[in-house]
# Entry
Amino acid sequence: ETGVTQTPRHLVMGMTNKKSLKCEQHLGHNAMYWYKQSAKKPLELMFVYNFKEQTENNSVPSRFSPECPNSSHLFLHLHTLQPEDSALYLCASSQVLASGSDEQFFGPGTRLTVL
Amino acid sequence: GQNIDQPTEMTATEGAIVQINCTYQTSGFNGLFWYQQHAGEAPTFLSYNVLDGLEEKGRFSSFLSRSKGYSYLLLKELQMKDSASYLCAVRDGDYKLSFGAGTTVTVRA
# Structure
């Protein structure tokens, strides 16, 4: 595997389900990100992990719970979601340097539909 | 908050040139990125500007004017495969990116 991978690619869930999205980066980067992409809207940054420490939580509802067990893996745990949470969820990684971060590399995303 | 504006859609003919403008008003500035995103795929990095001026990379060029809060992405010799969404993103700290809503470019034969 190369780059950034995400599983599953598609997910349909009911509002009472619990599911998890997985992201893995094979680039040796030290920062990982979760974004939400809804139609015709800008990419919304949800969470940032820098050296496995969460450094950003952009007022995301508690029904989204991130987990970063190591610098290569990132999870997004989902529970009691709402239909408006249906979107493409993108994972990204980058190398954070003293001068700032290099470009972010994105995974293919998980298309989530909440019924 | 961050405000990043770019046109919603643009259409051009194969072989032509298209310029996608991006204006921004952000609390800080530490570089501007352009990404390309084909439908159903991940965004992929195209260019990066942190100093004023033009950066050229093959058929794609990106320009930045920090004093004007303005950038553009220039696509030359358009090909059908260039039909995609182009995202402008501003980095306002060490690593956080704020994105525009994207410009959908349609290339016609």
